[in-house]
Amino acid sequence: MAAKILIVTGDAAESLEVFYPYQRLLEEGYEVDVAAPSRKTLQFVVHDFVDGFDTYTEKPGYTWPADKAFAEVDPAEYVALVLPGGRAPEYLRNNPEVKRIVDHFFELDKPVAQICHGPLITLATGALDGRRTAAYPALEPDVAAGGAGFVDSEAVVDGVLVSARAWPDHPGWMRAFVQVLREKAPVD
Asked: Most CB atoms within 10 A, among 68, 106, 129, 163?
């Protein structure tokens, strides 16, 4: 049986930030589960930039079924965690089941990848206090308020935590995360 990785997400997650790590980790030989507040078909979104707009725009993206509800997740079954961005982390950070899951990975020093708005979840658990992380640049004040150092880079590695700003950083982000996985949680 292949080592398993968990993606924690929900409606309004950024499509690319779910599917790129999902497919890249499958390619590496990991089994990947998507967990959400409930077992249902999730509606992802596409964030893009339009000339003349001060911030990104949001359009409907792909749909995808959640493999598990958060309450069904036994984090001990997984070697690593991925936290995509989009708007989903804004409400997921308040979910006690998400906090339970995230705490497990940080307490046991298991690999975690987060991107874009994903750090809103780890900030809410206190897991980023004293760490360095990338995030969507507009989150720099949130990162500082959570006791972490904001780094404006495509792939920030702090121990087993690998972070990035947004989907344009995917190659560097996943390259760094796969390197951590090969060292700390290789495929069986």
From this structure: 163
